[in-house]
Amino acid sequence: MESSTLFDKVWSSHVVHERDDGMVLLYIDRHLVHEVTSPQAFEGLRLAGRVPWRKDSILATVDHNVPTTDRSAGIEDPVSRLQVDTLDKNCRDYSLTQFPMLDIRQGIVHVIGPEQGVSLPGMTIVCGDSHTSTHGALGALAFGIGTSEVEHVLATQCLLMKKSKNMLIHVEGRLPHGVTSKDIILAVIGRLGTSGATGFTVEYAGAAVRSLSVEARMTMCNMSIEAGARAGMIAVDDTTMEYIANRPYAPEGPLWDGAVAHWRTLHSDDDARFDAEVRLDVSLLKPQVTWGTSPEMVVDIDGVVPDDTNPDYRRALEYMDLQPGTPIEDIYIDKVFIGSCTNSRIEDLRAAANLVQDHTLAENIKLAMVVPGSGLVKQQAEQEGLDKIFKSAGFEWREPGCSMCLGMNSDQLEPGERCASTSNRNFEGRQGKGGRTHLVSPVMAVAAALHGHFIDVRKCVL
Amino acid sequence: MKSFTRIETTLLPLDRTNVDTDAIIPQQYLKSVKRTGFGVYLFDNWRYRDPGVLGQDPRQRRIDPDFVLNQTTYKAAKILLARANFGCGSSREHAVWSILDYGFEVVISSSFADIFCSNSYKNGLLPVTLEEAAVDYLFKQVAQDPAFTCTVDLETQIVLDANDKEFSFEINEFHKYCLLNGYDEIDLTLQHADKIKLYEAELKQSCPWLFR
Ligand code: SF4
To answer: Where are the alpha helices (DSSP H) in A288-340?
Structure first.
């Protein structure tokens, strides 16, 4: 048999039909749904007199609009409330599984899929959300789709697609202490640029990736889209199996054994060919900080704001109110956001809390918030006492959701405010009109919160 | 779906690279449960000086007169001309809905983000990818003469400008066929319903853990 990549294997096993023009009808195993990109899809389905093709493939939750403060009184903003109610109603009407706002299992859709064992290796997974690439950390082919495609999958369980090209990103070396998978992916994006992987499905491989936990792998796959790739994948190994075992929706008993036998095949063959290959050694990698309005505008923590006459750079500098040559460590911040589908899982919170321990926020920090990725992450953190550590240092401990990652609820930056954020996008206005976002890892966000400005986390006691 | 065949129109020059979907339509408007009415919020953060909310009367807002969308010169343009990596960022189809709702039918750039492209095809918006040099040339023409027009013809896959200069563009046959005819992809897919059912039955046998 011809040797194939991980992507080839998952793709070819899901082809239902291939047209003469090369378009493929691809079967979708798992469809995750949230309130923002689904209402128009359900409306379209209803207008056409159709029903969901396979209800048990769907899991829905609310994450973008939900408040992260007390929820017992419901959602105050009537527009947000309508959107959340609309999802509730659609799920009721079509008897779909949903984790509504007050369910302990509610959370950011990309956190709860893996957490529940709903996202599994070898699956095709879609969601009307570009960070669906996150689930590729489990050896799945997972990618974001638009609302018309959401409707298409609801109606047919398939998507019409053309196979993308395949890129290998080989990450070698031992990751230094204090440097995380967030720093790896930021460095990758810095190198490739935000459209460097457009048209590709990326596979992350190499010793550095193998040594990462599944949660840390998710952080990398999550930001594949920031390099332009619709999907990022990582081969299945023992770490993957251990992560999945005993999760609520994971297979059990004989089903588990069958699944594991299949999952063991989910890796690229040794001599498999990729359309592009990138190599990166992380043994000397430093913590990364973005300085501009695109994730590719990133530098080492001991670097300076770069000088460039490119008009995009000029515009970004102006928006960010920064001068070329300014050391990154001299940039003071107003707010700190620890959360989002990139970095809101239990390991992220543990690493952050570990650094917070017995310290307090710097005087100039107006607000530092920790927003767990799901109700279960929050519960676990509270059982470990992490909430107390954060709160006694002056952080706010919130309810799970997307929160200030995109500020669809009231968690937003004011114009001109500068934020150290563990999220994935630093676009103009992303966290609120006029807000200035610097993307960093959770430990770097904590270090900045405690010092009031960016600082190499390795200078703090780890 | 709306079909697309050919238009002749002026161009609106948006001289920026990496125009992301947050810039095309900011987060607060994604709360709508409708597909229409997004045109007034297109490029909201650049177009208005004050922050807006869904449903607000745009006449009550402070516009930024310097932003190209607010310049009457380009009011009639149905082609949006932009730089590389247009539509990067999120999967929000609202980006395409707002561009169409504003009145554009074509976006010309040297490259597009994947999801933006597939969303465009599904709504009858035509993304045209040209060489960077061609995009540069078009920017220069529009700068010299805002009344400069182009014809975009999908059937022949050609952009023909007022100086009779021609640029051809690539498009996948399937997308072309759907756009020209305004076909609904779901209908096309459901013609294969039996195949899907067959595939599903086999999958249930080989990977039963996927069905729970
Ligand atoms: S946390 Fe941010 S990036 Fe992730 S799904 Fe929510 S809004 Fe999107």
So the answer is: 311-320
Instruction: Pick from A344, A345, A405 the residue to mutate for probing ligand 1's pocket: most ligand atoms within 8 Å of its CB.
Output: A405
Q: Residue A79 and residue B118: Cβ atoms within 8 Å?
A: no
Q: Do A144 and B54 touch (CB under 8 A)?
A: no
Residues with Cβ within 8 Å of residue B150, at least 6 apart in sequence: B8, B9, B11, B79, B138, B159, B160, B161, B162
For helices A375-383 and A346-356, what crossing angle results, to 10°? 40
For chain A, how many residues are written? 462
Q: How far apart (Å, rounded) are the C-alpha atoms in residues A12 and A6?
A: 10
Q: What is the pTM of this model?
A: 0.96
- Residue burial A6-34, b: 16+ Cβ < 10 Å; e: rest: bbbbbbebbebbeeeeebbbbbbbbbbbb
Q: pLDDT tens across A374-407, in order?
A: 999 999 999 999 999 999 999 999 999 999 999 8
Nearest residue CA, atom 4 of ligand 1?
A341
Single out the residue of A175, A440, A183 nearest to residue A331, CA to CA: A440
Per-residue pLDDT of A215-252, as tens digits, reads 999 999 999 999 999 999 999 999 999 999 999 999 99
Interface of B with A in 121-160 (CB under 8 A): 122-123
Contact B99, B92 (CB under 8 A): no
The verdict on a CB contact (< 8 Å) between A294 and B18 is yes
Q: Is the pLDDT of residue A462 over 80?
A: no
- A305 and A324 Cβ atoms separated by less than 8 Å: yes
CA distance A438 to A418: 8
ipTM (interface pTM): 0.93
A181 touches A288 (CB < 8 A): no
Our CA-based measurement puts residue A338 at a distance from the nearest CA of chain B, in whole angstroms, of: 19
Q: Is A431 helix (H, G, I), strand (E, B) or coil?
A: coil
In the numeric block, which tokens belong to residue A296?
A: 């590719």
Distance CA A114, CA A250 (A): 10
